[in-house]
Design a protein that fits this description.
heterotrimer, A alpha/beta (244), B mainly alpha (321), C alpha/beta (243), A: 244 residues, alpha/beta, Rossmann fold, 4-stranded antiparallel sheet, B: 321 residues, two-stranded antiparallel sheet, globular
Amino acid sequence: MTDAPLLEITGVGKRFGGFIALADIELAVQQGERVGLVGPNGSGKSTLVNCICGTLRNETGSVRFGGHWLDGMKAHERTRLGLARSFQLPRPFATMTLAENLRVPILYAVNVRNGHTMTDIETRCDELLRMVGLLDKAHRLPRDLTQIEMRKLELARAMASEPRLLISDEAMAGLSHGEVDDILALLLKLNEQGVTIIMIEHIMRAVLAFSQRLVVLVAGRKIADGDPQAVVRQSDVVEAYLGS
Amino acid sequence: MRNITFVGLLTIAAAVVFAAMLWVHNGYVFFAGYVVLQYIVLATAWNILGGYTGYVNFGVAAFFACGAYSTVALDKIWAPPLIVLILVGGVVSGIIGLGTGYLTLRLRGTFFGIATLALAVVAQTLITNWSFVGGSRGAYIIRPEHAPFLPLDYIQYLCLWMLILSVASLATARAIEHSRLGVGFATIRDDELAAEASGVPTLRLKLIATVLSGAFMGMAGAPLPYYVTYLDPSSGFSLSYAVNTIAMPLIGGTSSWLGPLIGAVLLGTLQQVATVTISSALSLLIVGLMLVGFVVVAPNGIIGWFAPVTRTRMRRLRGSR
Amino acid sequence: MAASLDISGLDAGYGAVRVLHQVSLRVAAGETVALLGTNGNGKSTLIRCVLGMVRPSGGNITLEIDGSRHELVGMSTEDIVDLGVGVVPEGRRLFPRLTVTENLLMGAFRRAARADITRNLEFCYEAFPRLAERRRQLAGSMSGGEQQMLALGRALMTAPKMLLVDEPSVGLAPLLVSRTIDKIKELKDSYRLTVLMAEQNFTQAIRIADRGYVIVHGRIEFEGTSAEELNNNELIRQFYLGA
């Protein structure tokens, strides 16, 4: 049992031409934590996620995950290490059924680590679908799903790679009150199973209900990191949201 | 059905086809048959990349003609047996595929498609200026009269090899479909970003597809000089190769090995019949009309007509191995 | 003879995504009402519903203007603008390859506005001296602040009685935001407009608002009927930050 953080982000910076998207981001996430990441639109949350997951390359700083330096590692290699993400706009594999969608990470992210037989894979897909309540639609196509079902599929597919850390990117956007609670319950259950979760959201009540720690990004910089109730009362955080 | 069984069935079918061709006692069957079989290989090869991963190759001519021209070059030096020429053609075009892929597949978007277009032009220019293989004057290849070892005319021997290549390419395509590799290809086609996030090594898989596709096209081109006996760049790099090779899987259906087969047999036979009965210029018109018709009526090709676009691959994956 | 707006029980969204739930609000004649709340809560959707760009699935939007009442739900955007509703869209949405003058003239498309085109243009240039200096400059080459002024001017060219402003602060530096807000107040006074403004910058918006509604997750959670109510930081902070 180690005390080192599961995810360590040090001095990460990213610019697009003259625009500074991220500047000097420092963040450490412990094994099993529930971290909320918030900030106004354009604050750099998505850029940070993309840098952590390898879709974008950060120019400065480094990311360390489970003791491995991630610099230069491709996105699929990071997934194989146990770092998973869901996409803000769900991106299911449109020509595959739900079960087939879940099979992909099992075949490519998990099988690399330990050998699975076909029946194992099918069982695991069913398990995941049952967990998100989509087992009865296992052989349907993604286009037959409702908004919230697509979000659940997105999370299930991220879970299929058996991650140690899951980044949930605005999984609740556009959902109704009850649907938000649904996703919230799902994420809490996943955390109970041992998955460390970083939740990026705009729906503040959900973030506050979920997070043990709240991180606030504004204009590419981290301005707050700590107890959620204290952070939302911090003067610079209030100013960032209410304007100056 | 296991892959081995499939290969067995295909081989039997090929043997039956060959026996039928021999039985007909009309030499022309072999000349026409060679072209159709060649397109089966080309269409299947193209579909491994274009249909399965969604990366469209417009430079078919480059891969095909480089296979043909490596035969021309070797024939002038040493004239090795046909099997060697086929393998060399495969390796040469496979390497070209690897090179093109490595340079362009890391970039997202249409760079690959455009690069293949440019590749065809570049290859044709290089060959035209390479006097060793005849350049723009063309090259004459002597077609032997008889096949080595077997009691066949050489043209029948060429057909036999094309049948073997057809079986090989179809078997490869089907094996891919039923494997983890095929699942990976499909994710690249559906959503490359999500594929990467799911652990799929997309660049590596795209390169595999490009190499396999290019290699089979090169192998399809390798026997061509013996078939035509005179090869010049304008006919070797003819646009009709690219047009047909792309049209056939589109007409037959791109989601499985059966599509290119149906498309090649259907379109190829139609063109051969038209060439003989009406005129050869009509063959391109036929392609054009069929393409337009199919895009409107059956956008998923013939197999899309009879089966839904996605068959449950789970069942298929379980069945193999 | 100013305009007033009455919205009741509005439900709206985009396909499966439901954005507004039972939204009711009023903008009385001559008032400046602010729609407040963080991004993604439905402010812009509400403005689009009033303009006929999003068709609500339930509820009414009634505009009283020039002495007659109109039900806006179901009307086309052109017809709504024709009634006398001007709009400053989110992100300004100017015509980048047209000059300042041309952009302004495009604003006067409405039949009722064409008669006074020359006069309105002059009024515009008086209100915005910076724009007068740059009449022939292409809109796309101007700075963010200047573009915001141009968008405001263009809206005024319709000779509106009611002005809808959607997120005027987006993309502007803080100083320019302040100036823009000041300008809106100035124009509202001199043209005697009724204004409904969606704005995520709470502190700036309430400087000129008579009343404000805080929208959270598609519902009106709070109505501040006076400047004092809106200045209750603790309460407002809870709506914006959840606690």
